[in-house]
Amino acid sequence: MRYRWNIGSLAWITHRITGIILTFYLIAHIFVLSHLKDPVAYNKIMAIMKNPLLKFGELILFAIVLMHVFAGLRITLLEFGISTKYQKTMAYMGALVVGVLWIIGTFYFLREVL
Amino acid sequence: MIKYYTFKIKRYLPNETPKTRWDEFRVKLNNMERVLDGLIKIKETMDGTLTFRKSCAHGVCGSCAMKINGKNRLACQTLVKDLPEIIEIEPLPSLPVIKDLVVDMTLFFQKNDKVLPYLINEEPPPQRERIQSPQDQHKILESITCIMCGSCTTSCPVFWSDKEYLGPSALLKAYRFLFDTRDKATEQRLKAITGQDGIWRCHSIFNCVEVCPKEIDITKHILKLKRLAIKKGFKGGQE
Amino acid sequence: MEINKHYFDTIIIGSGLAGCRAAIECIENGTVGVLSKLYPTRSHSTAAQGGIGAALGNEEEDSPEWHTYDTVKGSDFLGDQDAIEIMCYDAIPTIIELEHMGVPFSRTVEGKIAQRRFGGHTRDFGKAPVRRACYSADRTGHAVLFALYEQCQLRGVRFFQEFQVIDIVIENQAIQGVIAINIKDGSIHVFEAKIVIIASGGYGKIFKVTSNAYASTGECLSMLFRQGLPLEDMEFFQFHPTGLYGLGILITEGARGEGGILINGKGERFMERYAPTIKDLAPRDMVSRAILSEIREGRGIDGQDYVYLDLRHVDKKILHERLPEITTFCKIYMGIDPSEAPIPVVPTAHYAMGGIPTDIDGRVLRDVDGSFVQGLFAAGECACVSVHGANRLGCNSLLDTVVFGRRAGKAASSILKSSTKGKVKKERLALIIECLEMLKNNKGKETVASIRKELQQAMMDKCSVFRTEEELKLLVDEIKTLKERYKEIEITDKSKTFNTDLLEAIELGHMLTLAEVIASSALQRTESRGAHYREDYPKRDDENWMKHTLAFQTEKGITFKYKPVKITRFKPEERKY
Hints:
The structure holds 3 protein chains of 3 kinds.
Chain A: H1 7-34, H2 39-49, H3 52-79, H4 87-113
Helix pairs in contact in A: 1-3, 3-4
Chain B: E1 2-12, E2 20-30, H1 35-45, E3 65-68, E4 71-74, E5 86-90, E6 97-99, E7 102-103, H2 106-113, H3 134-141, H4 157-161, H5 167-178, H6 186-193, H7 207-211, H8 218-231
Parallel strand pairs in B: 1-5
Antiparallel strand pairs in B: 1-2, 3-4, 3-5, 6-7
Helix pairs in contact in B: 2-5, 5-6, 5-8
Chain C: E1 3-13, H1 17-26, E2 32-36, E3 52-53, H2 64-74, H3 81-101, E4 115-123, E5 128-134, H4 140-155, E6 158-161, E7 163-171, E8 174-182, E9 187-198, H5 219-226, E10 231-232, E11 237-244, H6 254-257, E12 261-263, H7 271-274, H8 284-296, E13 307-310, H9 316-322, H10 324-334, E14 343-352, E15 356-357, E16 363-365, E17 372-378, E18 383-384, H11 396-416, H12 426-441, H13 448-462, E19 466-467, H14 469-486, H15 500-524, E20 533-534, H16 542-545, E21 547-554, E22 557-564
């Protein structure tokens, strides 16, 4: 049987995985930016970015950034001396805040797109 | 209330082929009995070769830590009534298995030895006891309850991936002495735990806290160690 | 078979408090090896809860003289008073030394070692309870054991963990060494030594309901007994009044020291009738008898076979700070919170007053004349100095282990230079290996578990708090039958790796031997004293029985010799509290 997860270890693994994804994203992001040399290239790439699939990808990216930020904040607060008694509450609250922010973000995002 | 439970036990018999297998036993137990009672019943009446450690049977010696339904616990402190009817038992993860549920704890104890696990105070002792205020004693109160069962260290994902990591148990031991006002070896001990296998490897995953049978908030203690190390100028990397 | 040979100046069997304390002394003068069936910190000393007695006087006025008197009276005047005096006066420096070694004692407001009340400990020769037990919450044994083990590590004591001793080799009235199995791989190890200190602890597992660990089986005592050495005062076995109902898990006397009271089915505080002065803090033998008398007379809770230990009126903060461990035990095992519900308790087999006879320096005696086995020492629960006599007072056991562990260690070190190295003969080794193989390959229809269960049940029924001649006679016969049946046992596990099946079979053999000694000793002592209560002889008989029993194994079976009790300051008087 696999070792049982708990909210603490889930927060940790989320932080790790989102961190790794963001690293790759940033590399890709910088790579793309480095190719924006002239208006033609700019327009070409922007056209690709209009692809609905990539738009959807941006939503996921937004979620990942939120998760990483809040998981990181939780650890930072713990290390600065916020009592570990609240670690679970912080993880749940973090997840809640991430969810709410994501829904709000999605709302604005979709309004712009549609 | 008496009920039947199915014990699914991961066996490891070094002299048989295949060495590893899963065995199932049906055991009748009442609602006051513990997983350890179930294991003893199996050994006494069904399979005498089933091997596990046991001693005090009430959660103070730390012999019978094992993985029960996906979580490290003491078999003597886990009541069957709190578990589902199917109870899956494996040895503690990530340590070499000797036989069945018995693991080789040598590595675990070696970690402990690295943090200078003894009171060091070379000043000549006074005639009577050394004075320590109750407040100061309370700082180490939680850490001295550790029974060294190994549940925490073997539940730590960092330890799973890197056996060089000191692990929660050894770090807790370091805390016990670093925060004891009578101990004078602060520098030495901080040096021992701030190396590349020490406190900085703890990622506050809280698996150790989740499993500790003595309900010690180990991560809290490690975080305090981190703050102490920074205050004293130990930033890691030193060997 | 490959044999591993080791040499150490001193070998210590057992890594509890007595073993570790002795090791700390011995390592100053030579090499020390400590053999333990378990990992050292798993030794049963770790389960001691309430405290360690010493007249430090940190909380209120106290003196070692009062401590001596209490111990003598607690022992029902069977304790040797010279030894008791040594223990009570040595207690103070010994505890201070422990504190210097790092034991994290609980503290008073001024920062001194905190002390609390305990059963039978009084001020001014019995006037009122006194705070004498030094404690570390309710984990005193744990705190002391870890500190001592850590000091052993610091000083370079070599530990052989998970080594089970299978023979203690004595030849020409001198110790030669010990033979042990490495449990991990089944290999045989011979340890030759100049000195052997036995600190193997108690044997409560002979009884069905006990606070003792599975490892407390007492094989070392039996090994000596089978070689013709005596065992002293084996009839005295203490039942702790407050074990969790149905499990036997210990609820420390400290719970009563902090204000807990015992109540029966009628809601009465019945100890007021049995010990008007110190009530619930009377010595353990009296409280155990009181509880069982209440139950027998139908005043158990709802007519059942238990009474309540009531802690509801004790301040929650005290429960949390000073009794956290038992609070969690109640929550985990009984599902009750002691601050809200009373705890169901019954007496549980707890401590062996008897054991290997030793003098005040831990030397193992060979006979009533005071001759001893060269180089062999014993300390702790396995030994009988005798400081506990017929009944031990609470928090004197930890004290006994450290005081006499230390003394034995010192005495051993002092003779180290003049002692010769032991030699374990090949024939002896061959014999023990043959016995082991025979046991392993024995064919028969009996199992270890069934014999053990019957033994434990029989001892519980016939040889616990109340005893009668009739039942003891039946018991002796029963044990003899069990011994016969033991010859027919067959074990299932034939492997060499971690063969607990085989080890349990060895332990059972020794338990049977000890049980017979206990039952026979109880049968021949026709009086009631301390923990030994004969319903057919309910009075203490100082005229005939103010003496220690020494049981010997001879060809005719178990025979007895007697040793006078050393009385120095306190003349026997009626024991009233």
